[in-house]
Amino acid sequence: MTNDSYNNIIEMTEQYYDVIIIGGGPAGLFAGIVCARNDLKTLILEKKVYPIDKVCGEGIMPSGIEYLRELGITPFIKKYPYHHFKGIRYISRKGKTAEANFKKGSGWGIQRIALSSALLECASSFPNLEIQSGVLAKYNIGENSEVIINNKTLSPKLLIGADGLHSRIRKLANLEAPSPGLKRFGVRQHFKLEPWSLFVEIYWSSGLEAYVTPVSSSSVNVSFLWDTKLYKPSPSRKKLFASLLEEFPELQDRLKKADVLDESKATGPLYQKTKDVVNEKILLIGDAAGFFDPITGEGISLAAKQALLLEKNVVPVLQKNTSNLENALSEYSKKSLNIYRSYQTMTHLVLLLRLWPKLTDLVIQVLHYFPGLFQKLLSVNMR
Predict the structure, then answer these.
(1) Rounded alpha-carbon distances, angstroms, from residue 244 to 99, 205, 357
(2) CATH number of 184-269+354-380
(3) Is omega for the bond preceding 269 within 30 degrees of 0, making it cis?
(4) Which of 180, 224, 231, 370 has its CA 20 to 30 A from that of 142?
């Protein structure tokens, strides 16, 4: 055997991966962790450079915290600034409030940059998990999908699409479904201000909501979501956040003396449907698997629960005999879609409120007098 042949064999061996994950956000890192801790050689490819930011409300619900504990991530999060919150508070256009504590546990608010750093630190502790950031790959999607990076072709047992709302893997795998005409957008900014509440506050207006999440002992996240069919914000990008804040005088008054910690960031449209979450030897997770409105704040929880499903239903097959992979992926698909159903039902119910502002005011008034009902509604998403 020549030296060149020997070197080629060594190179091919070093480039073999059981699992390749496209996307290194929370969903991709969750998937990488469950694969790596079960001795699967795993590669994560992320086009951005860490730490990775994302426009979101930055609140993790109690169910999500439990899933993160199962994934072994919470000790890493505790190294960074974060803040507990005990429930949700609705505030109507007329200033009426309704609030409810979570039945079990508390939620955590944490800036997405800090969460990205914590997850990366956790994932990097596994020797058989390789993470490459700032890289672009090409794909040959088919019965045996291939990933091409730096002119090298890799053929994993399983390719995981964790590349977010506008997933390229989902599209190439023919898993994308037509999305409805819903046009929801969001914008976020951080303020240096001691949280005034242990609740995530949601302020309601016509076609527009404001969200306040405590993310540390000295800062809050303020985000807005709106539907372009119901609300027309300022066309000026520089004035967008300020114009939205003007719709909520009480919140504007609270923030007027606070220092702004960063520039506002916008995102949208915020909706994506899928035909399925698996196809051949491809699996989708997180926002790539189907993105619903963030109004109920369950994105991290859903991705973490999907990763645990991956570990329970698919990872054991990858460890032993991939001839059963099709059945394992089918089981993942079935259970993943079941997760979305209760979440989707609650999301649609809450979104209906934005269509009738007077109904929103009435519902908040009812929930004010019946906090137990509000608590039960919160629990629908947290099973």
Answers:
(1) 23, 10, 17
(2) 3.30.9
(3) yes
(4) 180
